[in-house]
Amino acid sequence: MFRSLYTAASGMTAQQLNLDNIANNLANSSTAGFRSRRIQFQDMIYQNMVTPGAAATQQTTVAAGLQIGLGTRPGVSEVVQTQGEFSSTGNTLDLAIQGTGFFQIKMPDGQTGYTRSGSFTQDSQGNVVTADGNPLEPALTIPASAQSVTIGADGTVSVTLPGQTASQQIGSIQLAMFTNPGGLNSVGSNIFMPTTASGDAIVGTPGGTEGLGTLQQGMVEQSNVNVVDEFINMIVAQRAYESNSRVVQATDQMLQQLNSLGR
Amino acid sequence: MDSGFYAACTALMSKTQALDSVANNLANVNTSGFKSERNQFSSALANASATGASPLNLAVNNYGVLGGTRLDLSEGSLQKTGNDLDFAIDGSGFFAVQTASGRMYTRSGNFQIASNGQLVTPEGDPVLGDKGVINVSGGKVQVGPDGTISVNGAVAGQLKIVDFPSTTQITSMGKTYYSAPASAEIAASKSSVQQGVIEASNVNPVSSAVELINVQRQAEMMERALSFFNSDLDKTATEDLPRLSS
What is the ipTM of this complex? Predict the structure, then answer.
């Protein structure tokens, strides 16, 4: 049978997947701390009908081989780690990281998750938690009587208590980073989990020499989805799908004519 | 049997192969660093009967076949991604990659950092520098136009960018890897590395679409020729001729 049918089908499947990914990126274009993903495609194996450089005669070799490729396949979908834009919210517990670090979150199953989304709130005991109620790690509790909370660029958290003029340090926020953040596993709710590809978390104090970045209080990092780029990708995906479907049509017509031979 | 019947049959087969090759180009229209394949048709007897054959013999037995495919090594457009680990080569060079099946070359510069800190391709194969693998862990990666990689300002290595003389046989290996004899390797002189961009596929959708139509119509013509032999000539020979003699 014609290879072109299957080759074109691989192209169409790839573009479908591409569109699925673009749709998810666009759907999260206003999710704070969201990291877009990009699918990378690869060409599949080649059928070597004549190997390039094979001997044509005893003295000469063929100038170019006859290689027929068998289509495309999605390689990896990589987390794009560009910085999202910051927007000022004025909330004391909104934190943005200017750098490559992640906040550490204690998940309900006891594991540590990592997030760039720094919109924290307090639960009934005063613990600093994510919107899902999972506590920040290391745990941070703000006294109910605190008048104001200040979080420094280096993660130091201090509060002013009633009747005191000097602020009092109650803890500090630590950040984590990864050797290969592109290999993190997205588990939803803005949480990433480490994998063998990402490497283990390197934990440190914000503003240190590791390059974790510094904290900005009262700011939230927006999604890093670039809507214009995604639209362009969408047009490309759609047109590529269309041209692959043209190949299916052409193959189908050629087969149809072949079948009608000898009638 | 009629020699023209086989000529049309051979041509039809070569057109279906050409269709396979166009299909592969179009399927990879979004594969970064992909180089499209161009079809080269040749006549089957071009080499075999260079001397001694009569012109008539050549004309009736010289069938058109798909002689080979040639890699179109022209540069694809550069797409900005903003990822520090996306590199593109402006010029004709290739990145050198160490794979399990030997040294390969690629134009697709969407690299990553492995958990051991090495700069690797999405397949996990280490990208080669002048002094072997490059360790890029622990900081902001920056690349100069000559391929020098620095991490947090400290030089970590220099990307090995190689070029090949135009006569070198370059074979597509899949995964946008290409193989070539290592002896042909020369240091690239007219290539510069750009950071935060990747090279898009060099498949031209317009020329591919035109080629697709071309292949389809030529195949149609060959099918017409086949059916002419089949229905008109053979029918006459098998059905009408016996009737004449009887």
Answer: 0.73
What distance in Å separates residue A216's CA from the closest CA in chain B? 20
Mutate to test the interface with A, among B14, B21, B30 (most CBs of A within 10 A): B30
User: Mean pLDDT score of chain A, rounded to an integer?
Assistant: 89
Residue A149's Cα: distance from chain center in Å? 32
- Are B216 and A18 in contact (CB < 8 Å)? no
**SS3 for A161?**
coil
Beta strand A86-88 with A102-106 is unpaired
**Beta carbons of A251 and A191 less than 8 angstroms apart:** no
Whole-Å CA distances, B162 to A29, B90, B196: 40, 12, 20
DSSP string across B172-212: EEETTEEE--GGG-EE-SS-EEEESEEEPP---HHHHHHHH
Instruction: Enumerate helices (H) and strands (E) in chain A, giving the number of each.
Output: 2, 19
Residues of B in contact with A75 (CB under 8 A): 122-123, 175
Cα separation, A160 vs B206, whole angstroms: 68
With an 8 Å Cβ cutoff, are A3 and B29 in contact? Answer: no
Q: Is B91 in contact with B109 (CB distance < 8 Å)?
A: no
Rounded CA-CA distance A74/B203 in Å is 17
Query: Which pTM does this prediction carry?
Result: 0.80
> What is the dihedral angle through the alpha carbons of B85, A41, A69, B202, rounded to the nearest 10 degrees?
-60
Q: B122: phi > 0 → left, psi -120 to 50 → alpha, else beta; which?
A: alpha
Contacts of B70 in chain A (CB under 8 A): 64
SS3 A261: coil
Q: Which of A52, A70, A202 sits opposite B171 (nearest CB)?
A: A52
> Can you tell me the mean pLDDT for A57-72?
81
Most confident of A19-28, B136-145, B164-173: A19-28
Find the angle CA(A217)-CA(A222)-CA(A228) to the nearest 5 degrees. 155
Closest-CA residue of B relative to A65 is B68
CA distances from A176 to A132, A136, B102, B169 (A): 20, 12, 37, 47
Amino acid at B132: G
Distance (Å) from the alpha carbon of A83 to chain B's nearest alpha carbon? 10
Nearest CA in chain B to A61: B169
Question: Is B19 in contact with B219 (CB distance < 8 Å)?
Answer: yes
Find chain A residues with C-beta within 8 A of B11's C-beta: none
Tokens of A212: 């974790």
Contact B122 A43 (CB under 8 A): no
